[in-house]
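Q: What would this complex look like in 3D?
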Amino acid sequence: MEKDKYPKTQVAAADETLLNAFFAQAREPIADNGFTDRVLNALAERSWQEADSDVVAEDGVRLRRWSEMLNITGVLACLALLIYLGIFVRMWDSLHTFVYQVIAWVMTFDTDNFLVHLMLFLHRLPEMLPSPTQIFALAVAFVILMILAVRRFFRIFEEKGRKLGLEHGFFLPLQAN
Amino acid sequence: MQRLSDLALIAQVVTLGSERAFGQLVHAHQEAVRRFLRRLTAGDEMRADDLAQETFIRAWQGLNSFKQLSGFQTWLMSIAYRVFLDDERAQKRSPLSHEGEGLAAIDKSSIGINNISREASTVGFALDLDRALATLSEAERTCVTLQCVEEQSIKDIAVITGMNENTVKSHLLRGKQNLANYLKRNGYDGKR
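A: Here is my prediction, written as structure tokens for the whole assembly.
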């Protein structure tokens, strides 16, 4: 650590004014002039330079686009499913009923009553048809699992891609071509 | 607002690997990074832009490790500074480039006011600025540039350079004094 050798005082006010006036001119704007594009191209080039020599750059770009497109498609499919459940399965009504019932149950909770109902429920479970609440719960679980699965799916390929030196990971089965 | 916008873009880069979002980050911060590196390289625009490009590539590669303890620009500046130091070491250059050495040599021969004015009128203010900064040590130049040109706080300068705040203050004080003396010697105070 460098030792502090100098007094911690300000420079003279006149000097500060002089420096401020001088440096005011130094804050010149620098136009992008294609610098951003140059950086993004360099990013792509760097990925291919670091990749295995048998990976063809053009295939990689195409496959990366595929990977990104499939990723987006997966998320959109999940969202579409969510909307479908919301509109056609009346998920929101079920949600409202479910929340209302839970609140009512908590407010009027009675242990004996609960045990009786639990026993009745377990007894009748095999012959019961799924209720809207159960369908809703299953649908939510399904959507969450779908999202997790899609994310996991792409993460696996991302990790495999990284092992090949690729920054973002691509579809390896196709890369071998 | 800029900080919020940066965080939204960073989130897109980290979670989706979005190059478009990263492009927006580069576009938003290229000016400060390139200007900082131009001053460090004594006005060598090509070298500064190459270093800036390397800075953004390293930022892309290390964005997962961005902890938001400092602002994104401060983080970028710290990468830029390390890239500059690495480049200096790799090329075994002195703190100044060859051009910078030339500038320093000219300064040490105490060029006159008329010469300064002539230079300013022909090659512009940027050369004067780099000539003035070339009279400082690397650490002084870095600290003065970050405070006076990029308007970074002492705390942020300490984060960027890895020095402690008192050391930064010392470099700032001595750098500013040297710079003010240089400017006075060359007629910038209007007294000739």
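A: To summarize the key features: Chain A has one domain: 13-175. DSSP finds seven helices and no strands in chain A.
Q: Very helpful, thank you.
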